[in-house]
Request: fold
Amino acid sequence: MKKNPSTPKFSSILIGACVFLIAWGCEKDVEPQGDEHFTSLPDFIAETEVNDTGQTVLLFTASDSASLRKDRSPHRIQGFLPQYQIPSNTTCVLFTAPYQTFPDTVSDKTFRFYGSAEMKNGIFSLSPDFDRGDYWVKAVINTGDSLHISNAARLNLSRKQTDFLIEEDITREVDISERTVLDASNYNHERAVLSVMHGRNHLLSMLTLQRRFILFSAADFEYNSNPEITNPQFDTGVYTLDLFLLDKDYRAKGRFITEYRVEE
Reply:
């Protein structure tokens, strides 16, 4: 197949946009559930009676601009369990704590249950209705034999969090091997998550520590949401690429959305 990165105008870029996020298939608003709202993270872990701690969940946050979110909640908490086959009907549980400068100093006892949502295709995307403020958030996934706990991610609702980037910020090119290359070197960030959408179907999320990377080279991505895929290949069609550039607190500082076209 010949891969042809399209170069749509800025206005057309908005048409399929996200996850963290336009229509993730697993997206579900978080709804507090009775007294569980007051359950601490350690209490929740004890009640599950699962002793093994599994692989760390990747969690990050984003706040969409008004032009992107439309009638949706402006805030997104998203993530996936890297390189792990998620059983069907798995639930992701969200906990929040007041912000402190250093996440390592925040006791797990201060993280309180907020809500839960089912996962789909190994991805979770939550849209909580938070009060204005500054928070740490964590997610827990119970796969039956193990509990998988996420990194702490900051969600700041007191100021603008996520900038929408255009092609002047993120450069795109095709190398001599006709591979699509994205270059985010001009934007200061710690890591990036790339999500691939086909219509409303979220196919894959991938994490990279590289500032310049080849789509979708396993050499440039640390891990992804589907352990069965090493070097993903896509059928003929038009896909949405949603790139989140994260700071050290796993907040999406910048977000770039574009199309990726695969031709016969």
Q: What stands out?
A: Helices lie at 10-13, 41-48, 66-69. The radius of gyration is 18 Å. Residues 96 and 137 are 4 Å apart (CA to CA). Residues 41-48 form the longest helix (8 residues).
